[in-house]
């Protein structure tokens, strides 16, 4: 398996895990407010990083005031957008660098493969925070472990 194929699998996992979290929050009568805020941040951040990779203007704030319905719409859009972006890359292109500004205006240059892996890890980190919030509220969080997704055939 090439690195690009592996990254593609990680984005498939990320899409599945985001949908699992979304579904678990939608199933609650009153999802913890911070959990919704964190999921909105995941959606917005994933779009922001894609926009940086494509040298596009930032669409949403990093911490948007999204509802769960907004999160669902964002997740649905991002799935196709990330697939299209990954299809446009080739293995050698993963080592190409992209210069961008962070939300504070600081300029950085990073390899595309590092940005892509950051997106996956950043989202997993915040999904862990959501799981802790949901558990603290007395509910069972979505089970989004990577190995679970692989065992169940959601990811190759």
Spell out the blueprint of helices and strands.
Blueprint: H1 3-26, H2 33-53, H3 68-88, E1 97-101, E2 107-111, H4 112-136, H5 146-151
Antiparallel strand pairs: 1-2
Top keywords for this entry?
6% strand, mainly alpha, Four Helix Bundle (Hemerythrin (Met), subunit A), 156 residues, 62% helix, globular
Radius of gyration: 16 Å
Biggest sheet character:
2 strands, antiparallel
* Arithmetic mean of pLDDT: 96
Which structural class best describes the helix and strand composition?
mainly alpha
Distance separating the two termini: 11 Å
- CATH homologous superfamily name? dinb family like domain
Low-confidence runs: none
Extended strand count = 2
Number of domains: 1
Fold-level CATH name? Four Helix Bundle (Hemerythrin (Met), subunit A)
Q: In percent, how helical is the residue content? A: 55-70%
SSE order: HHHEEHH
3D architecture notes:
The structure is a single chain. The relative contact order is 0.21. The chain is mainly alpha-helical. It has one domain: dinb family like domain (Four Helix Bundle (Hemerythrin (Met), subunit A), Up-down Bundle), CATH 1.20.120.450. It has helices at residues 3-26, 33-53, 68-88, 112-136, 146-151, and strands at residues 97-101, 107-111. The protein is built from 5 helices and 2 strands, in the order H-H-H-E-E-H-H.
Short description:
The chain is mostly helical. It contains five helices and two strands; from the N terminus they run H-H-H-E-E-H-H. Helix content is 62%, strand content 6%.
């Amino acid at each position: 398996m090439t690195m690009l194929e592996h990254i593609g699998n990680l984005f498939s996992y990320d899409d599945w895990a985001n949908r699992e979290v979304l579904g678990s929050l939608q199933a609650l009568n009153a999802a913890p407010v911070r959990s919704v805020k964190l999921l909105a941040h995941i959606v917005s951040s994933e779009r922001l990083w894609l926009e940086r990779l494509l040298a596009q203007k930032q669409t949403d704030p990093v911490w948007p005031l999204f509802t769960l319905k907004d999160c669902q719409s964002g997740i649905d859009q991002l799935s196709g957008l990330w697939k299209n972006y990954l299809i446009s890359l080739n293995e050698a292109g993963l080592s190409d660098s992209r210069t961008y500004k962070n939300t504070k205006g600081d300029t950085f240059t990073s390899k595309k493969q590092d940005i892509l892996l950051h997106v996956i890890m950043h989202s997993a980190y915040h999904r862990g925070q959501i799981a802790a919030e949901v558990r603290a509220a007395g509910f069972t969080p979505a089970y989004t472990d990577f190995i679970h997704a692989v065992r169940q055939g959601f990811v190759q």
